[in-house]
Design a protein that fits this description.
The complex is a heterodimer. In chain A, about 0% of the residues lie in helices and about 55% in strands. Chain A is mainly β. In chain A, the strands form 2 sheets. In chain A, strands 1, 3, 4, 8, 9 and 10 form a 6-stranded mixed beta sheet that branches. A 4-stranded antiparallel beta sheet of chain A has the order 2-7-6-5, with no helix packed on it. In chain B, about 0% of the residues lie in helices and about 55% in strands. Chain B has strands at about 5, 10-15, 20-25, 30-40, 40-50, 55, 65-70, 75-80, 85-95, 105, 110. The chains are: A mainly beta, B mainly beta.
């Protein structure tokens, strides 16, 4: 697909497993973080967000964890399904800015 | 609510031509941002418009320009197309209540030959 490049990390899991996608962010002044999912041929779709005053936030089958000490963000997907196959992007936003900075993305492949 | 829409979805142009892409944001959203996505560079920010004014700009040459209309619809224009302009161009809108959360359209796939 259009989002798969030579340097895109890939995570392969079996259907039903839990998936963990990691993201290292760069700016200690970032105060808002977002995870997006992008399926082939589509634009990025908002999944879940978290502010810097939180460590964890849960959605439907997804959990985002934020570790500000090591500037690390993770997205956990429970009971991964084939429909979860996509590229996942993390984005960070610095306080006072309207524009997020996107990571390179991780390709998640779910095998039935 | 209808999502962000972009037209056209696919476009083929030749070097030296110019192109105009259109974006209609989610109803009520006043901020529209444009991004270029390529396999090699990922998602790169082009510019953002709010209330018909360019509020933020990325590091792209002046060949890339945009505008926003009073109904918040936005267009971006690329003049003197180069082969390297081939990419997926994404538009995203955000609302006043939560301005940092952007919602993306499906993109326009531009191929420059």
């Amino acid at each position: 697909g259009e989002n798969v490049g030579l340097h895109l990390p890939t995570l392969s899991v079996q259907e039903g497993d839990n998936s963990i996608i990691n993201c290292a962010y760069s700016n200690s002044a970032s105060d808002y973080f977002i995870w997006y999912k992008q399926e082939s041929g589509k634009g990025p779709q908002f999944i879940i967000d978290i502010r810097s005053n939180m460590d964890k936030r849960q959605g439907q089958r997804v959990t985002v964890l934020l570790n500000k000490t090591v500037k690390h963000l993770s997205l956990q997907i429970a009971a991964t399904q084939p429909g979860d196959s996509a590229v996942y992007f993390c984005a960070e936003k610095k306080g006072g800015s309207y524009i997020p900075t996107f990571g390179r993305g991780t390709s998640l492949i779910v095998h039935p | 609510k209808a999502g962000v829409t972009q037209t056209p979805r696919y476009l083929i142009k030749t070097r030296g031509q110019q192109v105009t892409l259109s974006c209609s944001p989610i109803s009520g959203h006043r901020s529209v941002s444009w991004y270029q996505q390529t396999p090699g560079q990922g998602l790169q920010f082009l510019f953002e418009y709010f209330s018909e004014t360019q509020r933020n700009k990325g590091n792209f040459p002046g060949r890339f320009s945009g505008r926003q209309f009073s109904n918040s619809r936005s267009e971006m224009n690329v003049s003197t197309l180069e082969l390297g302009d081939s990419a997926l161009y994404l538009c995203a809108s955000s609302g006043v209540a939560k301005p940092e959360t952007q919602y993306f359209g499906p993109g326009t796939r531009l191929l420059v030959l």
